[in-house]
Design goal:
With 335 residues, the chain is of the alpha+beta class. The protein has three domains: 137 residues, Orthogonal Bundle (Sec63 N-terminal domain-like fold); 55 residues; 104 residues, C2 domain (Immunoglobulin-like). The protein contains twelve helices and seven strands. The strands form two sheets. Strands 4-3-6-7 form a four-stranded antiparallel sheet. Strands 1-2-5 form a three-stranded antiparallel sheet. Strand 3 and strand 4 form a beta hairpin. Helix 4 crosses helix 5 and helix 5 packs antiparallel against helix 6. The chain is globular.
Length: 335
């Protein structure tokens, strides 16, 4: 709390977390934080905010709120989502408020992911808090098409041009000819080469999961390998900072956190890969596990995989004895 300079009331609020929170629910909780008490809802802003929230003719926010914008919390929620969705706001005071919200929100979301990492039965909330902290840092949604906005010299208008040209991933940008990029962006050489260079020197990850032959009725063991596929290229030049890392977070169908660890690029740059044997306790709901590699600073680098672990005995299927009475009751219900 002291490290991230977080208000006590904010900490109290997050102690009520259930552990299954979605991205939308976390944004609602963050909008209620004490850190944003100085943001006021002014009467003349309501029209703009309501248009951002719901408008059949314009691009609106990802998670619209019920009814009209009538509270400070709803305004904060709306501005967070507008910024992450690259929706332009033509109002100076709202732009200023958004800047203030993101400065404080950056601390709150980073604290939240650290706070949730200390618990075990909150996989969904932890994963979404890691994603949200990164979204606040990039000022983009995790599934945003505007990945190019994260590159040097590319702002909102140039990233819009990239999206319109279908360049919605780092891979697509890398595969495009430098001269073609300049035509799309209306820039002179060597601008296209510079863009390609910065994408080329972003870390590229590969995630492999392999089940080991050691398993029982209740326990399986998997080997997770993270490869930095372009690690030789990154030895000389890197676009990401020296502090860039990925978080490997694994969870099961019962919402339990199986594994959670930050892996620095500097560790991967030594040999090009990282390996870990991880024991997976059998969940009650199903054998499916979710394996996620989340970048700390970039949208468009994450890897998310579903994997089904194998155990000694198959999942028990409860046999249902259906009597004639049940069948009659069901058929009468159908009518």
């Amino acid at each position: 709390m002291a490290w991230y300079y977080i208000a006590f009331d904010t900490v109290k609020q997050f102690f009520t977390i259930k552990g299954t929170e979605t991205l939308n629910e976390l944004i609602i909780m963050i909008s209620n934080c004490t850190e944003f008490l100085d943001v006021k809802l002014r009467t003349n802003e309501k029209k703009i905010l309501n248009t951002l929230n719901k408008d059949k003719d314009k691009i609106t926010i990802r998670f619209p709120m019920e009814g009209k914008i009538k509270t400070r919390e709803m305004k904060i929620n709306c501005l967070i989502q507008a910024q992450l969705g690259c929706i332009p706001i033509q109002d100076f005071t709202l732009t200023q408020d958004t800047g203030r919200i993101f400065r404080n929100g950056l601390r709150v979301t980073r604290w939240l992911s650290d706070f949730l990492a200390s618990c075990k039965n909150n996989f969904s909330a932890l994963l979404n808090s890691l994603i949200l902290a990164k979204c606040f840092r990039c000022k983009l949604w995790e599934n945003s098409l505007h990945v190019s906005k994260q590159l040097e010299k590319i702002g909102v208008s140039l990233s819009n041009a990239m999206v319109n040209a279908g360049l919605t991933s780092f891979k697509k940008i890398e595969d495009t000819n430098a001269r073609e990029l300049e035509l799309i962006l209306n820039r002179h050489p060597p601008f296209g080469n510079q863009i390609k260079e910065s994408v080329l020197h972003l870390p590229k990850y590969e995630l492999d999961i392999e089940q080991l032959p050691k398993y029982s009725d209740t326990m399986a063991e998997i080997l997770v390998t993270i490869k930095l596929t372009n690690y030789e290229q990154l030895q000389t030049k890197r676009t990401a900072t020296d502090f860039h890392y990925v978080t490997l977070v694994i969870g099961d169908a019962d919402n339990q956190v199986i594994f959670n660890q930050k892996i620095m690029d500097s560790v991967l740059l030594k040999t090009g890969n990282w390996m870990k044997k991880i024991e997976v306790k059998r969940a009650l709901k199903s054998e499916d596990i979710s394996i996620n590699l989340i970048s700390s600073d970039y949208v468009g680098l994450d890897i998310q995989k579903a994997y089904t672990a194998f155990y000694l005995t198959p999942k028990a299927v409860r046999n249902k004895v259906v009597t004639n009475q049940h069948l009659k009751a069901e058929s009468s219900l159908d009518i």
